[in-house]
């Protein structure tokens, strides 16, 4: 009896959808995609966001600053070379889902890259120091940051809004620092082997 009820209900829904007034739909997809494409591409066919990013890199002389910082020579002294990065490319080839994620994040990544280019000159000395630092020290800093976050939660009392805000701030700062340190140490240890 239950199956018959479901069948009758399905038939009534199907029949009733035939009496719904449909509005005429026009296809604006070709016009909107053409307008959107005009915003993303210049007259030659270059991606406008990439072109402005490369212009910004050139204006800031970012590659000259990388060379002047000694980052490349410190990387070579630490044992990092393109041949060390090659296994990471093989790993990406082994797991094609990684490449799909990278490709899908392309438009979102293009929005972030100008900020990265602005911050890069100030970060170059930090990167040069990080490459020269043994991975075990960076890993220890990551573990220390996790312990500091745990200590902030355990030692700061929960008796006021201000103290809870301090706990939240400490965890909000220390956990990303710990994650970046641990991930950086793992990558650096793989590259320097």
Automatic annotation (TrEMBL):
The chain crosses the membrane at residues 136-156, 168-188. Residues 1-18 form the signal peptide. Keywords: Membrane, Signal, Transmembrane, Transmembrane helix. InterPro entries: DUF1118 (IPR009500). Pfam families: DUF1118. This is Transmembrane protein.
């Amino acid at each position: 009896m239950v199956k018959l009820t479901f069948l009758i209900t399905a038939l009534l829904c199907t029949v009733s959808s035939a009496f719904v007034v449909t509005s005429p739909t026009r296809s604006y997809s070709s016009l909107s995609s053409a307008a959107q494409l005009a915003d993303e591409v210049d007259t030659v066919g270059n991606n406008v966001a990439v072109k402005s990013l490369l212009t910004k890199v050139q204006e800031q002389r970012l590659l000259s600053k990388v060379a002047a910082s000694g980052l490349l020579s410190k990387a070579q002294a630490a044992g990092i070379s393109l041949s060390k990065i090659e296994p990471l490319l093989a790993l990406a080839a082994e797991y094609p889902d990684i490449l799909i994620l990278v490709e899908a994040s392309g438009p979102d990544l293009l929005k972030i890259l100008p900020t990265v280019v602005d911050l890069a000159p100030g970060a170059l000395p930090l990167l040069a120091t990080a490459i020269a630092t043994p991975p075990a020290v960076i890993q220890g800093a990551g573990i220390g940051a996790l312990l500091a976050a745990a200590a902030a939660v355990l030692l700061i009392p929960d008796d006021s809004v201000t103290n809870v805000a301090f706990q939240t701030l400490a965890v909000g700062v220390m956990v990303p620092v710990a994650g970046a340190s641990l991930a950086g140490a793992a990558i650096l240890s793989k590259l320097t082997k």
